[in-house]
Design goal:
- This protein is an alpha+beta fold.
- It has one domain.
- It has 3 helices and 4 strands, in the order E-E-H-H-E-H-E.
- The chain is globular.
Length: about 90
């Protein structure tokens, strides 16, 4: 999982976070049964923001590369993001 958001800016009160995750080994059925709100990807992802405090977007092969997208600020300059290895948690 890769995490980005206003908490890494100079904002005194960060608003939320954005995260993306690889989908190759994800059990979508189990995820949908356990956390149906995570499967609500309709923009502006209001349900996810309300339930989880941020947006969780799958990084689908052949689609937008959100890992790369998150590593650029609004001016197009490179910036850092956080990577969390969730395989160690199972």
């Amino acid at each position: 999982m890769w995490v980005d958001g206003s908490y890494i800016t100079t904002k005194p009160e960060p608003g939320d976070y954005d995260a993306t995750f690889d989908v190759e080994t994800l059990d979508w059925i189990a995820l949908g049964l356990a956390e149906p709100e995570l499967l609500d990807f309709d923009a502006p992802r209001t349900t996810q923001k309300r339930v989880y405090g941020g947006e969780l977007i799958p990084n689908v092969p052949g689609g937008v590369d959100f890992v790369d997208f998150f590593q650029h600020n609004r001016d197009g300059n490179r910036k850092g993001i956080i990577r969390i290895d969730l395989t160690e948690l199972t």
